[in-house]
Write a structure and sequence with these properties.
Length: about 70
């Protein structure tokens, strides 16, 4: 079973992966420094994609779940 899904939150990705913020950035999501927008850290990856803040979600999930 995959560790990360479209229901995973931005915060889970950043907290679980040392390269999480870089991977999110590579897919269009700007984490910034210390989550200036505190609510966005609890946004699911799917919601971030719907809002246009994240692109290529299937590819991101593939990369996140490789290791």
């Amino acid at each position: 079973m995959p560790r990360f899904t479209s229901a995973s939150t931005v915060k889970e990705v950043v907290a679980s992966r040392s390269d999480g913020d870089k991977l999110l950035f590579d897919h269009g999501y700007e984490v910034g420094s210390a989550f200036v927008d505190h609510l966005s850290q609890y946004q699911s990856l799917k919601d971030a994609e719907r809002a246009g803040r994240l692109r290529e979600l299937p590819r991101l999930l593939q990369v996140l779940n490789q290791n």
